[in-house]
Amino acid sequence: MIYCGVDFSFPTPCPGVWIRADGEWDWNCANALLEWFDNTLEYGTTYRAAGWTIEPTREGTTFTNDATGHGMFVSVERVEPF
Length: 82
Hints:
Layout: E1 2-5, E2 16-19, E3 25-28, H1 31-36, E4 47-49, E5 52-57, E6 60-65, E7 71-74, E8 79-81
Antiparallel strand pairs: 1-2, 2-3, 4-5, 5-6, 6-7, 7-8
């Protein structure tokens, strides 16, 4: 699973979102995890971690599972699983 915590500009039930390799996702309310996963990504740099490709841009960040092709796009304005 990949976790992303964002300062969303719209009302959300929790400050973060989880995505699984099969495309299932859910909001995450475990604030303690926000501190543990506190990493800043650089725009234009592609990251690979635990079978995921992570591509941050100014518009938002795309997380894609390398095996399934499922993932999500996350920005302060929206969350779009695919």
